[in-house]
Write the structure tokens for this entry.
Amino acid sequence: MKNKSVPIFFVLVLLLGALSACQWLPGRHGALTVDGARQVTRLGVDSVPVYWSRDGATLYVASHQGAYWELWAVEPQGREPHPVLGHPPFDIFSPSFSPDEQTIAFYSRRSGNFDIWTISRTGENLKRLTTESAEDRWPAWRPDGQKIAFISTRDGEVGVWTMNPDGSDQERMFHGGFGDWSPAWSPDGRFLAFPSRRFSKIKDVVTIGLLSSTPDDTFEPGQSHLWRYDTSTREKPVQLTVGDANSWRPVWSPDGRRIALTSDQSGNRDIWLMQPDGTGLRQVTTHPAHDRNAVWSPDGTRLAFGSNRTGHYEVWAIDVPKP
């Protein structure tokens, strides 16, 4: 029997179809890795995702350009990433978008002290919201846009506070905390999830780490677990993660049914998922590099995260396992 050759154009069609099926994020993509993640940015400097726009068209990235962290946008149609906010001496730490995506809250030391600021997405209407001598960091907009949660060192502790978007009505959520940071609102605005080192055995070292100038908070020392606080009942926070592993950077899924987090439970920093009560812990990324700071796509089917798979932190994305 004679061998039948497959037409070249048919092979090309199959290859092009396979490639187009994989290219679901903007920018130039690398090959899929063993855990199914795909590289999104090639900025050449440490970068982590901070927000995925509601229409799914833009992924906003914090990028360490020189001595400052700036906000960049990655957009579709192969357009290269471009800066949105930043440039010396305008450092942008932990930017958080308002629900209408028109205002960005962030913390900065441009006043000589770490304070919470807001600015419009177009770079106008800069406003300083906190003026205490204490350190104020990690702002997070409530989904209804009526409150901003943040972390402050006031009262001799490192705890969770809230305030109005204009900086008024600054209020401590609960007392007795130590090393609380990086709060995240549930989609209904009722719960705050946050990491805490309140049971750390090296509190003095942790305090120095929290007050340092580095935004790379996932690498500070001390035992870190995730907690959940109910802002409606105002009862004591509930611990969600236990054991010897550390957990950082919680972020709620758009439907509120899962929380993505960074954890070293596998012996390596990876992205994990769990239910809001702390059960159902499930590993998402499995690469030997460090993965951190996940953000959800608006449809809840993908996670973008920072990873040093290329030798420094770039932004990658991965499909989310179904519950």
